[in-house]
Every structure is written in C-alpha cells, then in structure tokens.
Give the backbone structure.
Amino acid sequence: MSKTVDVSIVVPVYNEAENLPLLFQRLTDALDKEAASYEIIFTNDGSQDASFDLLKGFYQKRPDCVRVIDFHGNFGQHMAIMAAFEKARGTRVVTLDADLQNPPEEIPKLLAKMDEGFDYVGSYRHHRQDTFFRTYVSRLVNWFRESTTDIKMRDQGCMLRAYSRQIIDQIVQSGERSTFIPALAYKFSFNPTEVEVKHDARAAGVSKYNLYRLVRLNFDLITGFSLIPLQIFTLFGMVVSALSGLLVAYLVLRRLIIGPEAEGVFTLFAILFFLVSVVITGIGIMGEYLGRIFQTLSHRPRFVIRQVIEKNG
Ligand code: UDP
Ligand code: MG
C-alpha cells in the first residue's frame, strides 16, 4: 500500500450503521465521477453497533479503494481522523462526517479549489441544520476562538475540508493529542481558503457529542492553540489586586477618621463569593493546561489500532 493516489477520503465512524450504506453509495458515486484515483479510509472508533461489519463489507466490495482502521475502543473523532492521516496516501486529503451532514457531492467543489493552488480548503455551512443550542454555543466559541487565537475560520465545526499532502505530513509529524484537526491544519497552511457547502440534518441516529464531550472538544480547541485564557486570568488578577488595594487604603483612612464600620457585610460576601468563583475558574484553566502537559509527557499512545483491513501492495 505505498502507491500514491489522487485523493484520500477520511471518515471517522462511531455507531453509524444506519448511515453507512447510503454514505458509501453517495461517496463512491461522487468520486467515481471525478475519475481521479482515490481511496476511502474509514476509522471505526470503537462502534458497538454493526458499523464495523458494514465497513468490512465495503472493503470486500471495493478492496482497491477501501481501507478500514479498527480502533481498540473509542478515542474520539479527531484521533480517528489522525490515525487515517497517518495511513493516507493521497496527494490531497478530504475529511467528512459519516452521518451525511456533509454531502459527499460537495467534494469536487473542494478539490477544484485545491487545483486553484490553495493548500487548505475549509468550508462553512449554508443553513446549518443543527439544534438551536448547538448553533448558538458554537457561535459563541467561534467568537472566543477568533479573539484568542490567530486561527481564522468562518465555521470551525464543519468537518468537510480538504488538505494538501504537506499539511497532512506536518499534522502527522506533530504527534498532537487532544487536538482539533481543522485548527491544527490551519496552523500549517500557507494559502488557506473557504467555500460554502450544503449541510443536511443528520440522516439517522443522534449526535455522538453530549454536552460533556462538546465542552471537552471546545477546551481542546481553545487551550490547544492559545495561552490567552491564562493571560486574561493573570491580568484580571492584577486589576482586582489593584482595586482591592485601593479599597483597603480607603477603609484604613475611614477607620482613622470616622471609626470602624460593620455595615455592608452582605455586599462584602457577594464580592467574596465572586472572587472565590474566579479563583476556582482560574485553577480550572490552569488544570486544563497542566492536563495537556501531563498527557503529552506520559507518552501513552494516542489511540490503539486493533487491525487494519486493506489490500496489500
Ligand atoms: N465520531 C467518532 N468518534 C466519536 C464521536 C463521533 O468517530 O467519539 C464521528 C461520528 O461517527 C461522525 C463524526 O465523528 O462521523 C461527527 O460526529 P457527530 O455527527 O455525532 O457530531 P456533530 O455533527 O453532532 O457535531
Ligand atoms: Mg453530525
């Protein structure tokens, strides 16, 4: 499996049995038309449903262009993509979701952009089909990411993206864990662009991201690419110290001139609770960075592959 191909399509799969047959049909239809040589790399991210059997079936049907990486457990969407990047042979690599939210028919549009000389083709969703909550939170994080990192992406959540071989090599080399692939790729790109793509509601099943996983993912996006949360915290601490210094000076003077006071106890409590919560948040932020250091230093594998199903040679 060393021969290069024109395009590698990378699809992370976690319990998507209901979507896979149609996805495979639409993907191969769209790619066969493109006439270029291609491979589709599916990573089975520890699915508990029939996904893996279906993927094996796809391989048996089209052994020349299907490769299946089977994870030993659930390591997350971005690690599933990372594992596929390590194996990809394409001069261009396209990622997309397995739930048909990203229409495979849009792939040629991305490839055409790459032919124009861009090394990173991102995308933003025309009429995003997600819940109100998801859309709103994602807009908020988008804004925060724009203001704390130098990563410019109109729509970070859209995974339908195309990358050049050079970017893929750098991502693989970086060995990053708990990362956010589109942001990492952006860091390595010279000439990025974005196109508008259609977005559909999930064809079947439910989102694999619950609130906790969403929060984790967004922390990875922010703490993985910027130190600004820590710096904001330090700055805030300095401003609060200055203000409380003034308050102390004022109270000392007041005590000397007017005498002691015992009123305003609850106001003081309110201020105290607020500050305690800020301190806890700060410890949390520090913990995020510490956790990343810990994970990086522990040298444990980022994911474990049980087997790879592909044609030899
Ligand atoms: N996915 C994965 N591992 C996970 C969670 C998700 O491989 O732990 C895959 C999932 O099968 C899908 C893609 O990542 O192909 C995006 O997941 P999902 O559609 O649930 O996310 P959403 O569209 O809600 O952001
Ligand atoms: Mg989805």
Notes: The longest strand covers residues 5-13. The chain has two domains: 5-206+301-309, 228-298. Residues 265-297 form the longest helix (33 residues).
